[in-house]
Design a protein that fits this description.
heterodimer; A: alpha/beta; Rossmann fold; nine-stranded mixed β-sheet; two-stranded antiparallel sheet; 6 helices; 13 strands; B: alpha/beta; 30% helix; elongated; binds flavin-adenine dinucleotide; binds adenosine monophosphate
Chain lengths: 259, 316
């Protein structure tokens, strides 16, 4: 019966985000926030483990302003409860502060055997929160996990590395980070959405976590943010497949293969 | 600035050392290796500006990142380094944050540029899915940096580095490595390929990849893929995966077949000279990021394309 904490980050929807045509800075006001992609995989994995062996699944989330509706979505998928904090000093760029605050939320969630995180977040892709939490709690970390098994209180993981699959095992408690390969996250049914309204969301202030603003002193600050743009010719080719093949063959011979 | 450089193997360390020389031409660099480098590797480490190579006890990696991190932390304390440069590979991304946390330092990975500024370190890296570049100032020492090191290393160093054994005794949470399953496919150097045919989920079945293979053969191209093709479907080996979490490539031509072109894939192909996409959906993001956007079905276009190319090139 492993008790599991899933770290769920809310980020700007980078797929919607557009740069300002002149300043090239992202126009955050025109993009919504969403749950970081891989965190849904992390949550799904936690739910599957609970379905097999029982236990509790808690969600923790920290950020400048956590949207409760998105937290409800994780409860609708099946998480039992959520522990969250919103504070303006929680910047997405500061991995040290984020991990510190998350570790306190994890403690609020109570006893745990496993922390599941996305391997990297949608906005920053820092790959750092999982390993930092593992170091804070002094537990092993299994990264890039594409398949996970639990037996006799031990984890067995298939880690996708550049040189192949590493099969590794460790005891619990532990931190595991996952990407999109491990599973396909479920879509909550209407019934589950309704049930979720009764599940608890615990919201904390900094002082509830025993932290002060000084402790949130940034170890990383943002100085500049600009879109990278490469202009392409954007020639659109439409027509019958045979004609398109002919045109494409011409282009390849003329532009791609010519020395 | 005193630099410590670490990576999973001497080849990676040589690359990072080359980058380090560009960022900090006047700073002495020491390398920490997991195993003793060979004579030739030692010479090249010297060429990349490394003065001393410290060798950790063997078999640390198989015990997992926490053990390597504990050993590195002792090495850093012993050597008194303010900046630790690591590779922005999967290995480096497991080690780096944990090391930064242990040392109470700041961390950034995937850095393409690093420089000292006043009281801190300024790094440039891609964020927001890879579509934006951020300049970040790191304020907490030591600085742990994952470097996006390209193949060409700035030489200029001379001499053979001193080789020293680092005897560290660590106690950290272990993992047990049970098995490494290597892919059948041989190693590819996608970063150097001049022509790449990229394969995405537009392919319905694994067998259908033969059509992309045949096309690549005629064009003298390498095959690459989107993350789901190597990760989810396991139709190709991990070293062919292009994008934010895979390889950054810079071919003269990139031909994307059945790839939607989400930003995380686009980051990986941005430096291509010419991008051509074939996709049934005229509104797929890749279409606006292509020089030629062919609206159509790969199953109907690729076979006749192979025929046309055979005729035009006289190749079989
Ligand atoms: C943190 C993070 C990191 C990521 N890193 C990477 C990365 O490094 N690399 C990467 O690739 N992805 C990465 N992704 C995933 C990325 O967001 C996309 O999910 C992925 O790139 C989609 O792959 P695809 O284009 O093959 O599949 P899909 O998005 O499913 O697209 C398939 C495309 O094929 C087209 N199609 C279908 N049938 C046909 C046909 N018969 N003929 C022609 N076209 C057809 C469709 O119109 C569609 O556009 C990452 C995601 C996250 C959150
Ligand atoms: N502010 C946050 N709140 C909750 N979880 C987070 C937060 N930041 C990061 N995480 C978790 O850590 C993973 C990796 O994020 P990152 O280190 O930013 O790449 C995410 O996928 C989440 O699981």
């Amino acid at each position: 019966m492993p008790d599991i904490v899933v770290c769920v980050k809310q980020t700007v929807d980078v797929y919607q985000l557009k740069p300002h045509p002149e300043t090239l800075e992202p126009v955050f006001s025109q993009a919504q926030s969403k749950i970081s992609d891989f965190d849904l995989n992390a949550l799904e994995e936690a739910l599957r483990i609970r379905e097999k062996g029982g236990g509790r699944v808690s969600v923790v989330s920290a950020g400048p302003s956590i949207n409760q509706l998105l937290i409800r979505e994780t409860l609708a998928m099946g998480a039992d409860e959520a522990h969250i904090i919103s504070h303006p000093l929680l910047s997405t760029y500061d991995g040290r502060v984020t991990a510190t605050v998350l570790s306190k939320l994890v403690e609020k969630a109570g006893r745990w055997d496993l922390i599941l995180c996305g391997e990297a977040s949608l906005d920053n892709s820092d790959y750092q929160t999982g390993p930092r939490l593992a170091e804070i709690f002094g537990v092993p970390h299994l990264a890039y996990v594409t398949k996970l098994e639990i037996s006799d209180g031990r984890l067995k993981a298939w880690k996708s590395m550049e040189d192949g699959l590493h099969v590794a095992s460790c005891s619990m408690p532990a931190v595991v980070t996952v990407g999109l390969e491990i599973n396909t996250p479920r879509l909550p049914s209407l019934l589950m959405i309704r049930a979720a309204t009764k599940k608890p969301i615990h919201e904390y202030r900094l002082s509830d976590l025993g932290l002060t603003e000084e402790e949130l002193n940034p170890s990383v600050t943002l100085r500049e943010l600009k879109a990278l743009k490469v202009e392409r010719r954007r020639v659109k080719l439409e027509g019958k497949p045979e004609e398109l093949a002919e045109k494409l063959a011409d282009i390849l011979v003329r532009e791609a293969l010519a020395r | 600035m005193s630099l410590v450089i670490h990576g999973e193997n001497p080849e990676t360390i040589i690359r990072i050392a080359g980058a380090a020389r560009r960022f900090f031409p006047d700073s002495p660099a020491q390398a920490v290796c997991l195993a003793p480098p060979g004579d030739e590797e030692l010479r090249r480490l010297g060429g990349a500006g490394v003065e001393t190579v410290h060798v950790l006890p063997e078999n640390l990696t198989s015990q997992g990142p926490a053990v390597v991190v504990a050993a590195l932390a002792m090495a850093v304390a012993k050597l008194g380094a303010s900046t630790i440069l690591l590779s922005a590979t999967k290995y480096g991304r497991e080690i780096g944050p944990r090391l930064a946390q242990r040392l109470g330092g700041s961390y950034a990975t995937e850095c393409i540029h690093v420089e000292s500024v006043g009281e801190g370190l300024l790094v440039k890296r891609l964020v927001l899915g890879g579509a934006y570049q951020a300049s970040l100032q790191l304020n907490a020492r030591p600085y742990v940096i994952g470097v996006q090191a390209v193949a060409d290393s700035a030489g200029g160093g001379a001499g053979i580095p001193r080789l020293e054994r680092l005897d560290v005794d660590v106690d950290a949470p272990k993992i047990e490595l049970l098995e490494v399953v290597k892919p059948e496919a041989s190693h590819v150097d996608l970063e150097r390929a001049e022509f790449i045919v990229g394969v995405g989920r537009g392919f319905k079945r694994r067998e259908d990849l033969s059509m992309a293979e045949e096309l690549a053969r005629i064009l003298g191209a390498e095959l690459g893929c989107s993350r789901p093709v190597s990760g989810d479907l396991k139709w190709m080996s991990e070293d062919r995966h292009i994008g934010l979490s895979g390889k950054r490539v810079r071919p003269k031509t990139y031909l994307a077949l059945g790839i939607s072109g989400q930003i995380q894939h686009l980051v990986g192909i941005r430096d291509s000279k010419l991008i051509i996409a074939v996709n049934t959906d005229p509104n797929a993001p890749i279409m606006a990021e292509s020089d030629y956007a062919v609206v159509g079905d790969i199953y109907k276009i690729v076979p006749p394309l192979i025929e046309r190319l055979r005729e035009k090139l006289g190749r079989r």
